[in-house]
UniProtKB/TrEMBL annotation:
It is an enzyme of class 3 (hydrolase). Belongs to the FBPase class 1 family. Residues 11-83, 105-238 form the Fructose-1-6-bisphosphatase class I N-terminal domain. It comes from Centaurea solstitialis (yellow star-thistle). Transmembrane segments: none annotated. It catalyses: beta-D-fructose 1,6-bisphosphate + H2O = beta-D-fructose 6-phosphate + phosphate. This is Fructose-1,6-bisphosphatase, cytosolic. One of its GO terms (molecular function) is metal ion binding.
Length: 375
């Protein structure tokens, strides 16, 4: 139907957040402004990720051609300008010349994508005028915003998570969480070392086959997809609820030899269920945003447990564990650290790690029971 092919009532993320805001007459629109700056960061990273994937593939392809006709050395994939000219002349096809002229700059140093993304987010957040302290996975120290640009929000974020997936074009993402400053005074680390349940909002943006932003401001979870022709995030997944029980488990099984008893028992049960249910499927991308996104939409469980080598697991409390746990609970799922509800944890350091088990309510119930039995 034509009516389905072209939606005419577009709920952009800005309109959505302004609608929500109008339900709180006391609100002055600060949150909407902050969010629009986060959204800008996400759009920038989305475009940078797409360009990088395209350019690195193109460069690999050109370097391959250079090697084929003996212009490039064994290991060196950067051809000199002169070599590239010869190369472009010997392949006088339009396509190659066009590519060379438009995209290939021999020897060009590219700023790493995660560094670039961090710079963009920090600048977007500071310039919003609504933040006072920022914690980024890329910066060792928290950033205290200069007084003239301060607002009441504290933002914790991982600008580009899953960086090992960048070069092969697999989904990566940005994760963020938002707190309110504790009192009106000088911002300090105490403002971000709060338990996750104090977060006002959390979300992630996934740079995958499409660019999807999932957000919760404490009353449910909503998903928006970037329409590249409009440059706008449009509401495509209203009020996301995770299935109560799932058929998928997601974990790095390569660490199995170092797992503790309850984790090992749980994964064994996924593969060889003893209660007559069918075995679960294994899906693991190695990008938290993508693995959590699938878990949210299809149900199941995502685990990054503790192991003998890393007793606190791998994932970071402030900008990985908390925002994803916040979203899971808002969607009707659960998140557990192996000891307690993830959002109850009180971090002592900004880059602290914690084990995490999150997903469908019933699946997380099972792993909680195994840890309880251990005590
Ligand atoms: P990163 O910050 O180095 O990108 O690491 C975080 C990523 C997560 O996205 C993902 O869940 C996890 O590391 C995967 O780790 P592993 O490769 O150990 O399975
Ligand atoms: Mg990370």
């Amino acid at each position: 139907h034509n009516a389905d092919a072209f939606r005419t009532d577009l709920m952009t993320i800005t309109r959505f957040v302004l609608n929500e805001q109008s339900k709180h007459p006391e609100s002055r629109g600060d949150f909407s402004i902050l969010l629009s700056h986060i959204v800008l960061g996400c759009k920038f990273v989305c475009s940078a990720v797409n360009k990088t994937t395209y350019c690195s593939q193109l460069n690999t392809c050109l370097a391959g051609l250079a090697k084929l006709i003996g212009l490039a050395g064994e290991t060196n994939v950067q051809a000199s300008e002169e070599q590239m000219t010869i190369l472009s002349l010997s392949f006088s096809t339009h396509w190659l010349l066009l590519c060379l002229l438009q995209h290939y700059v021999p020897g060009e140093e590219q700023k790493k994508l995660d560094v670039l993304s961090n710079e963009v987010f920090v600048k977007a957040l500071v310039s919003s005028g609504r933040t006072c302290i920022l914690v980024s996975e890329e910066d060792e120290d928290a950033i205290i915003v200069e007084p003239s640009k301060r607002g009441k929000y504290c933002v914790v974020f991982d600008p580009l998570d899953g960086s090992s997936n960048i070069d092969c074009g697999v989904s990566i993402g940005t994760i963020f969480g938002i707190y309110m400053i504790k009192d009106g005074g000088e911002p300090s680390l105490e403002d971000v070392l709060q338990p996750g349940k104090n977060m006002l909002a959390a979300g992630y943006c996934m740079y995958g086959s499409s660019c999807t932003l999932v957000l919760s401001a404490g009353s449910g979870v909503n998903g928006f997809t970037l329409d590249p022709s409009l440059g706008e995030f449009i509401l495509t997944h209203p009020d996301i609820k995770i299935p109560k029980k799932g058929k998928i488990y997601s974990v790095n099984e390569g660490n199995a030899k170092n797992w503790d008893g309850p984790t090992a028992k749980y994964v064994e049960k996924c593969k060889f269920p003893t209660d007559g249910s069918s075995a679960k499927s294994l899906r693991y991308i190695g990008s938290m945003v993508a693995d959590v996104h699938r878990t949210l939409l299809y149900g199941g469980i995502f685990l990054y447990p503790a192991d003998k080598k890393s007793p606190n697991g791998k994932l970071r409390v402030l900008y990985e564990v908390f925002p994803m746990s916040f979203l899971m609970e808002q969607a009707g799922g659960q998140s557990f650290t192996g000891k307690e509800r993830s959002l109850d944890l009180v971090p002592k350091k900004i880059h602290e790690r914690s084990p995490i088990f999150l997903g469908s309510y019933d699946d997380v119930e099972e792993i909680k029971a195994l840890y309880a039995a251990e005590e």
